[in-house]
């Protein structure tokens, strides 16, 4: 057997080209076998040794699989010298390509490692406060830039210093190309150091049609998921140069503001007579208010002496003032209103659409659906209870209102339109 093998080698040595082809095929087979052994045996064995969570991470990002590709490249780079009869130029090309491939593989593996670091950091409870994704992306850019220089230098078989020496003249061009990256890096540092936005913050930027939660903060963009489930990508630098609203303070305070007005018909505002006051004493929320208010007004009117006999000179209780007091007491007894935050009921300047009675308070929850339910419940009650005070909500007449009024005038026996009563001041004039 040994003699046959020696004969075959002697015959092969007499045919240089065939020997070179056989050696090349053997080298390629050895590289394939090394790749198979590493991926099928070593890598799988390593996955089994590692914990399940860590195994999933490494498989997802492929860091070990990428590093395993270095083995066949090393086999080719080292074994090419043993191929007899191979031209020197071909050997140089194979070594350079394998060297460039190894550099590229290491760079991609380092990028995957940075992704794993970012994923593990996001598991921390305070990861949304100080995200590091932007910084890791900068490190990736540096790694890929260095890898690009090394790959080019390896392929052309020149020193990397030759390429680096030419970068000085290209500095202005590089600054122009990477100006967005530099601005985004500065913005990311300011956002992180000043705690401007976090993942999970509700932000509002009307000029970019963004209104929703921040779901990702990267080097170049910040992703915002709007309330209609669309995604808006905002350049990171815009959060430094443009104004926006961050609702984090509201979410952390535990209360969300209600600032809404009831528009009352000003013609329904009047003084309350004795019968109406007694009628309003039925309200538990108004009993103490009416008693104290009546005592205060009686003390005031008692100081007027003879002039107090004229109703125009006296103070009297109004239906709108009683309703305003009722609303305030109602809010202070409502279980959905935050009692330690600002709470007031006030009149705003009259408008052509009526007299605004503004309710200003805070709910004791920041959840959207619960907030809207509490607000609707309050105004449902106020709109329904309003006629008890002799007040009306202002509303522009619709076509049906005009039609009903016209039909009522056409009915037999309908009362004639009454002329408005003449004001006492007009009689004297």
From TrEMBL:
GO terms for molecular function: mechanosensitive monoatomic ion channel activity. InterPro entries: LSM_dom_sf (IPR010920), MS_channel_C (IPR049278), MscS_beta-dom_sf (IPR023408), MscS_channel_2nd (IPR006685), YbdG (IPR030192). SUPFAM superfamilies: Sm-like ribonucleoproteins. PANTHER family: MINICONDUCTANCE MECHANOSENSITIVE CHANNEL YBDG. Residues 180-248 form the Mechanosensitive ion channel MscS domain. Residues 420-429 have a biased composition (Basic and acidic residues). It holds the Pfam family MS_channel_3rd. GO terms for cellular component: plasma membrane. The chain crosses the membrane at residues 20-38, 93-114, 135-155, 161-178. One of its GO terms (biological process) is cellular response to osmotic stress. It is found in: Cell inner membrane. It is a multi-pass membrane protein. This is Mechanosensing system component YbdG. Belongs to the MscS (TC 1.A.23) family. Residues 401-429 are annotated as: Disordered. Keywords: Cell inner membrane, Cell membrane, Membrane, Stress response, Transmembrane, Transmembrane helix. Residues 331-391 form the Mechanosensitive ion channel MscS C-terminal domain. The keyword Transmembrane applies.
């Amino acid at each position: 057997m040994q003699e046959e093998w020696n004969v075959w080698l002697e015959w092969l040595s007499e045919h240089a080209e065939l020997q070179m082809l056989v050696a090349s095929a053997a080298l390629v087979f050895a590289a394939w076998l090394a790749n198979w052994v590493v991926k099928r045996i070593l890598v799988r064995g390593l996955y089994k040794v590692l914990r399940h969570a860590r195994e999933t991470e490494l498989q997802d990002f492929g860091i070990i699989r990428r590093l395993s590709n270095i083995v066949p490249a090393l086999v080719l780079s080292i074994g090419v010298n043993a191929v007899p009869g191979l031209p020197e130029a071909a050997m140089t090309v194979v070594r350079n390509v394998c060297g460039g491939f190894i550099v590229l593989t290491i760079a991609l593996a380092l990028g995957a490692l940075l992704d794993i670091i970012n994923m593990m950091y996001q598991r921390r409870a305070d990861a949304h406060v100080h995200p590091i994704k932007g910084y890791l992306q900068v490190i990736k850019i540096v790694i890929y830039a260095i890898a690009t220089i090394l790959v080019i230098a390896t392929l052309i078989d020149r020193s990397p210093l030759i390429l680096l020496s030419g970068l000085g003249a290209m500095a202005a061009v590089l600054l122009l190309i990477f100006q967005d990256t530099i601005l985004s890096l500065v913005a990311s540092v300011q956002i992180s150091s000043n705690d401007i936005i976090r993942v999970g913050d509700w932000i509002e930027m009307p000029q970019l049609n963004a209104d929703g939660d921040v779901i990702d903060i990267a080097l170049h963009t910040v992703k915002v998921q709007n309330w209609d489930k669309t995604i808006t990508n905002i350049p990171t630098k815009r959060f430094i140069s443009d104004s926006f609203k961050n609702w984090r303070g509201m979410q952390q305070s535990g209360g969300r503001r209600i600032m809404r007005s009831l528009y009352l018909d000003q013609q329904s505002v009047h003084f309350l007579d004795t019968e109406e006051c007694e009628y309003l004493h039925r309200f538990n929320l108004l009993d103490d208010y009416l008693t104290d208010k009546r005592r205060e007004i009686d003390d005031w009117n008692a100081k007027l002496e003879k002039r107090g006999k004229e109703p125009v000179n006296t103070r009297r209780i109004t239906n709108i003032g009683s309703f305003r007091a009722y609303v305030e007491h109602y809010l202070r007894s409502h279980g959905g209103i935050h009692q330690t935050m600002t709470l007031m009921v006030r009149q705003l300047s009259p408008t052509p659409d009526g007299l605004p009675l503004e309710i200003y308070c805070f709910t004791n929850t920041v959840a959207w659906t619960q907030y809207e339910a509490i607000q609707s419940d309050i105004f449902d009650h106020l709109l329904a209870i309003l006629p008890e005070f002799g007040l009306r909500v202002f509303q522009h007449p619709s076509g049906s209102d005009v039609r009903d009024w016209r039909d009522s005038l056409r009915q037999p026996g309908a009362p004639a339109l009454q002329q408005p009563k003449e004001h006492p001041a007009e009689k004297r004039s």
